[in-house]
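Table S2 (text version). Query chain:
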Amino acid sequence: MQKLMFEKILVANRGEIAVRIMRSAQELDIKSVAVYEETDKNSYHIMRADEAVCIGPGPRRDYLNIQKIIEAARKTGAQAIHPGYGFLAENPDFSEACTKAGLVFIGPPPQVIRDLGSKVIARRLAKESGLPVIPATATLSKGEEGEAEAHAFTRAQGFPVMIKAVSGGGGRGIRQVTDERSLMDGIKRSRSEALTSFGNDDIYLEKCLYRPQHVEVQLLADSYGTVVYLGTRNCSIQRRHQKLIEIAPSGWPKALNDEICAAAVRIAKAANYLSAGTAEFLVEPDGTYYFLEVNTRIQVEHTVTEVVTGIDIVREQLLIALGEPISFRQDQVMERGYAIELRINAEDPKNNFYADPGVVQVYQSSAGHGVRLDGGIYQGYEIPPYYDSLLVKLTVYGYTWQEAVGRLGRALRGFLVIGVKTTIPYFQQIVNDPDFIQMKFDTSYIDRHPHLLDYKEEERESQKIARLVAEINAYGYNPYAQ
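Corresponding structure-token output:
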């Protein structure tokens, strides 16, 4: 295998993930180029890069423009592109366009992304690799024929069933239906969402499992045929199929974790995988597990795996892209303790978690032993309404689960954010919930705990003082003075 060389990469993303990639690149003495839209010109990732290029007025459409991103790489002399997550990260056309332009794509080859991006093909590969899969249909035909196929499946499997987009991801195009009346309407809605999100309206039906846990395996694969796993994560606490809290390791017994990890390696090898990726599974209460999908990118929750293993996943991605072998053996990977990650968003949990863009008047981050922050905001930053509402990812470590939970509570209390509503008070409710403290959760946790939204937002004295100072600075006088 001929080793590749690059000294400068372009990060085709924004916010905290762009900053996170740049940090690992800088440790390897690789320069980084940021791209941004005019509507995102104050984003923190621009300040952290060695160079920055405006690729258009925005919003959002220029971040999705493959040709503009490749032209920015050529203009700045970048030899490789890292897609991060979201935007173009799982678009095989982007991977292919980079390769055709003579650029190294820091991720899987286009055909691997195509194969594993199709849930139908991924399920076939899983079956061929001996992985258990959830009973499901093939891609439903269009029109009345597809309706007949759907009815035949529900008669055989019963309700509830899941309707899923074949090219799904990020919780889009997925819905649960519980009876014949909602089946046809659900199919129509999922087709519409799939077409809008993925460019095609292909869907299929899958048997719905009763209160499973969502377990995933972090994988790394190099050009020499080596595939290693970095343990498991538990991502069961979700809202509308979007993950809210991620934990490493999964909490299941070692024997089951090892079996699931071995299954993940098998499908990665069957798909000729390269770079970082994640195999996802659903695990029933009795330990029966089923393959769900493979995400062909770095994931938001990779931080918890890094914390418990000490391995920099992005650094390994960069080295693999340079043609290097994975820098450690499987028997050198050890998980120690527990890590928990929360996504602190500018959202109002009491208002259906709607985004709350605005100016961050005061921002004081948490700190201390066992606390990791991956963020993309700063005091005075105006959060634009066009992008993801993520402010900062909080990851805490504890030698035991109880220590990690206690540290999480302390870390949440250490934040001070004024100017926008955040998910912090909602997470404080979860941290104090007995079921969470006892690690009793599954994918139905949020639905079964609606009372967690019954909290009062009480402003601490420090918050009142900080708000007053911020307003004096903004207005040039004390607006409350008589």
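Notes on Table S2: Residues 135-207 form a domain with the Dna Ligase; domain 1 fold (CATH 3.30.1490.20). The two ends are 76 Å apart (CA to CA).
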